[in-house]
Amino acid sequence: xxxxxxxxxADACPVKAEAETVATRLKLRMVLVSNGGIRPSVNPxxxxxxxxxxxxxxxxxIAERATTGDVVVTTDIPLAAKCxxxxxxxxxxxxxxxxxxxxxxxxxxxxxxQDLRSADxxxxxxxxxxxxxxxxxxxxxxxxxxxxxxxx
Length: 152
Hints:
The protein is an alpha/beta fold and 152 residues long. The protein is built from 5 helices and 6 strands. It has one domain: Rossmann fold. α2 (57-65) runs parallel beside α3 and α3 (77-85) runs antiparallel to α4.
């Protein structure tokens, strides 16, 4: 079996540098996928993939490639569901892990919140701001998740 790959849904990801630190320490390949505007890393373990402009192009690219043992960093719940179905583990930038055990609830919650926002145009935005503790939790979770993928 090959080593896991770390895929980053990079366009709005606040933890790219942290992910690169963990991938480098574990000597794993990391792929940053975006529509552009992301500066390529000089790190030989980090590959930058620029997909065409368009809705969900980066998501499609990642979903077509993520497989068992891989780890995906994203906040996009539909992408997370596709990756989990393919056998990957998903880590959100706040350190929350999405797996087969909880992805159904995450999808249901996302759909409910989308319905609430469309029913009430004044109910926009939401969620708490990204914090230092989220960043710290992400680093710990990503390290543990990648080490577990390496052991498989």
